[in-house]
Amino acid sequence: MTISVTTADTPPCPSPSVTTTPSSSEPHSSHEASTSANAIMVLESSVAALSICSNNAKTNAAFTSNAASTSSISHNDEDFTIQANPIHGCLSAYASRPIPRRTVILVEAPPLFGDDIDALTRNHDDGTHCRRADDEAFLRDRVGLDEEQCRRIWELHDQFADAPEINPSNDEKRLLGIIKTNAYFSTDKKGLGLYPIISRFNHSCTPNVGYGFDGWNMRLYTTRDVEEGEELNTCYSDMVYFHTREMRKLFLKTKFNFDCVCKGCNPDPSSLSSSCCDGETITEKQPQSPNQQQDNIIKEKMRKSDDRRSRLQFLSQMLSIRNDGQIKRGHLQMILESIRLLREEQLEHNLGPTYRIAYEWARKLKETGSMDGALEEELEGMVCDGGDGGRTGVDGFGEVCLRILEVSLGVNHAETMAFKRKFAEELVT
Questions:
Q1: CA of 130: how far to CAs of 65, 121, 166, 173, 301, in Å?
Q2: Where are the alpha helices (DSSP H) in 183-323?
Q3: Residue 415 to residue 338: CA distance in whole angstroms
Q4: Three-state DSSP state, 74
Q5: What is the pLDDT of residues 349-388, one digit of tens each?
Q6: pTM of the entire structure?
Q7: Buried b vs exposed e over 408-424: b needs ≥16 C-beta within 10 Å?
Q8: How many C-beta atoms surround the C-beta of residue 290 within 10 A?
Q9: How far apart are CA 399 and CA 339, in angstroms?
Q10: What are phi and psi of 370, to 5 degrees?
């Protein structure tokens, strides 16, 4: 992998203009958001009930103490480069070759994580750390990082440098601000980790890179085929998957303090045409200028996207209130609809847990004789449409689940191995 760095401190791409809006939901901050707090609380409470959400949220949970690990990075050579974004000037990750779907492109262990981040937060909150020099001493003396590791951390952007509750002096970046901006929550270790290379992957509400955790190791993999030169993006929070563009923007601004400018929220006009918008032609009642036509196409595209995400939220809420012991045909139909909508919204990162639910429910329906021919045919078409090949029907869903587990968690992860054993047993029954 080649890393090209032109400036030491380059802000995340989705933040061309920044104003401080502290988040009431952010675990590092005790400051209540002064605007839109109720809307965010409603958004978060609705997502908490989702049954098809993978819950890989960036900086989205409390800290816990965990065993130490050695910082390390592994990757496929020449998969991507990190260089300045030509539009925003920030550092971004770009594919340096065509990369097939479900290719692991990076595995990184954090130099700062778990109980060390917890201790840092306490020191900040009780006033023990009041300036950058205190943070530097903490990294050097408590965490034991060398000069190079410290340099890589301090090169990361602090999106909260102007937030008074993080940096009262407002004249220097702080380690807590860097963590709030860049850290990810390990679902394996139930704690936060700071990943310097992965932090260069910017946010998108339609990401082409998914991630998973094997202990503290964070794994990045492509969720669809990626072209050479294409920017590689993760999604900072699954919270954005099930909400309209305006609600996503509100959440990201409140929690991460940036204005989202991803292609999912702001389509590139050059990629659209007046004759095609999700397969439909826009009918004009009167002649319009090219700019007006383009605006209408974008509005129509965003409206349909908002409708799909609102439908995803509805389906998720309906599925979350079902009786776990009673899997019905309608439940599986809702899951299959969710998969179709996730694909249409380019949310392949979230398909892993959804496929898994579909597989488990389809298996139960088949065992009880409730799987009719029409539903079996729909299952087969769903797997084939996803371009996965191999087995079809119920077994096809199981095969897809295994593939996603292998790339997101690793072939030796306990969850992967347990599912592989279970899947192999069910194939022979």
A1: 23, 11, 9, 12, 48
A2: 245-256, 290-320
A3: 24
A4: strand
A5: 777 888 888 888 888 898 888 888 888 888 877 776 655 6
A6: 0.78
A7: bbbeebeebeebbeebe
A8: 9
A9: 16
A10: -95, 0
